[in-house]
Amino acid sequence: MTCKPEINIDLKMYKQYINSTIFLAVVCFCIFTGKSYAQQQSIGLLNDTSQILQLISRGADRTDKSPEKSFDDLTLALNSSKEIQFHKGIALSSAKLGRWYFGNNFGKAIQMGLQALESYRQIGNTPVDYTAEVHLLLSEAYDEAGKKDSSAYFYYLLSEEILTDAISNPEFAVTVYTKLSIFWINFGDDYLQGDEYENTIQRFVTKAKEAATKIKDTAKARTSIYFIQGAFYHGLEKYDSARYYYNKYLSEGAQSGLTTGRIISTYSNIADTYVGEKKPLEAISYLDKIRAMGKDPEQQKYLAFYLGFIDLQRANATYLLGNYKETITILDKALAEVEKTGSHLRIEIVESYDLYAKCYEALGDYKMALFNKNKFGALNDSLQKKDKVDVIGRMDVRYRMSEKDKELALQKLALTEANIKVREKNFWIAGISLLTLSGIVIFALWRKKNINKQKLQKGEINNLQQKIKIERLKASINAEEKERTRIGRELHDGVGGLLSVARMNFELAKKNNNHSYSTDFNDGLHLLQEATVELRQAAYNLMPEVLLNQGLASAVQAFCEKMASKSNTNITFQAIGNRKDTTNDFDLPVYRIVQELVHNIIKHARATHAIVQMNFQDDGTLGITVEDDGIGLPKNIIENSRGMGLKNVTERLNDLGGKIDIQSAPETGTSIYLEFDSLQDTNTNKL
């Protein structure tokens, strides 16, 4: 006999779902964009810069209502700007096109954002409002593409700009603070203790309110705050208050004209509050409104990314109604649609498999329930591991904001402490004087007592120093022998082979020709020239001077700058944390690994931009990230590689006890992460 299972929601899973849904709203609230597949019309290029700027403005205004026409305008503006080398037009149109691509083609969005930054760099003295807009685009696009290191980098730049009050546009400032607020709402209270979670969110909400007071249109300023207040109460699970502010945002925002994306995000949040109260019918009514807005074929393409996640939300509502088969059908369709957008692994997708498992379990299909439960566990572990770098980077932003807010309080506290110190000054002078005198007496007695002992130890120290000299001499001899072996191998394998072939060509020329200007003779000279070049390169590769004199990080930086100057790839180097002193036995193989990876990017990746990042952790670990926006790597590249490059990388990693993780896709390029558990401090090698 079977009985209908009772509907029961995992509260922890559901709270994570609430937070994830609110994060989804940020995508549309900050600057909502979509993707269209409209093709550029056959219109002649423009050569008037004022007309190009007008075209960019028109294209940006039409993005929401007429995405295809918007794409045509922005593409024409970009091509026209490139034709006449109008860098401002290239930057502005690239930034707007990056937003146009956001949500459907993250690779193109990143490409356009980087192109905009490069154009702003060539212009020079660019207003922070412009660059901050691109930093926001890249931080979100890299985040959605799953590149957490790059996302954290641009997120850090954006936070520095907002912290220094360099952003003059108050509406954009409200947008940035809103993003920060909803990030912490989405982050949850797992990492913050007690009231710190609510206080952290409230701090950003207050900052947004302060920025809104600078907006000249008071009605618009008031409306912009309603959404963030609704999100604040939403995160605290005070659903009645959240709906009150969401509805205020919709009613007053209708007069100033809300974009389609902002309306959808608000409807989605209202529906989520009803799911939180286990009122699925009310939730479905708002989800139906969203689905009705996307019936237009052009809007379906434009809103594809967002509508896919709306269906995941609908699946939770139908599950509450006990419609398990319908829930499975909705999940199948939604996951297929989300996969088309190219979005990386997200919490909404991961938790869909947990919902699958519950539905199949309720239907009695325990085999499928177990399958999806196991898949949920595996994906959830993978997601948590992938988010570690992002968590570290954004936690740093939170503490920076907190420290700035405390500066005034610390100044007041300093004045109070100064007064206390004046009153205590005489007391401390007397106490310190007494302690100093006592210390001198004790030291004199101790020194007298130990002077004989030191004489005895002096002989032992002399013997130990002799042993140290011997050991150092042995180590020096071993190192020199090892270096001579390596030099001999390189000269023999590289230069020796070329000289042998050159000699055979000269002998052949002597035998077959009666003069010294034959083709064979010239080939021999050419091979000798190649041998000379090979010899010089081998000598340099023995040990770069900058590696010996300035350390690993400086050597890698110098190498990246050198390769960037000799190639078409823009290579950015970053060093994070306190640089550690390490031995040459550690530095040289790590330097060779980075050399090989950068050479592969230049030779094979067809990349325009690359980032080499070294992260020196306080616990002694070293993380190295090498990323590019090229064509990606083939699957199973390490196992199937026939060349020596990646094999040498893996062999050196194994010798050092390091780890490697490769993430690659055709549209987003390649990200290689190297990790070394502990640095070999030079002090450990000193006796």
- Could you describe the largest sheet, including whether it forms a barrel? 5 strands, mixed
- Poorly predicted regions are 1-43, 681-687
Q: Residue-averaged pLDDT, rounded?
A: 75
Helix content: over 70%
| Widest sheet: strand ordering | 1-2-3-5-4
Q: Report the sheet-strand fraction.
A: 5-15%
Outline: globular
- Secondary-structure element order, as H and E? HHHHHHHHHHHHHHHHHHHHHHEHEEHHEE
- Radius of gyration (CA) equals 32 Å
Total DSSP helices: 25
Work out the number of β strands: 5
Terminal Cα span: 77 Å
Structural class: mainly alpha
Characterize this entry briefly:
The chain is built from 25 helices and five strands.
Write the layout of secondary structure elements.
Layout: H1 11-31, H2 49-61, H3 67-83, H4 87-101, H5 106-123, H6 128-144, H7 148-163, H8 170-187, H9 196-212, H10 218-235, H11 239-256, H12 260-276, H13 280-293, H14 297-302, H15 304-320, H16 324-340, H17 347-362, H18 366-386, H19 388-512, H20 519-542, H21 545-550, H22 552-565, E1 570-576, H23 584-605, E2 609-616, E3 622-628, H24 637-640, H25 645-656, E4 658-665, E5 669-676
Parallel strand pairs: 1-2
Antiparallel strand pairs: 2-3, 3-5, 4-5
Helix pairs in contact: 1-8, 1-12, 2-3, 2-4, 3-4, 4-5, 4-6, 5-6, 6-7, 7-19, 8-9, 8-10, 9-10, 10-11, 11-12, 12-13, 12-15, 13-15, 15-16, 15-17, 16-17, 17-18, 19-20, 22-23, 23-25
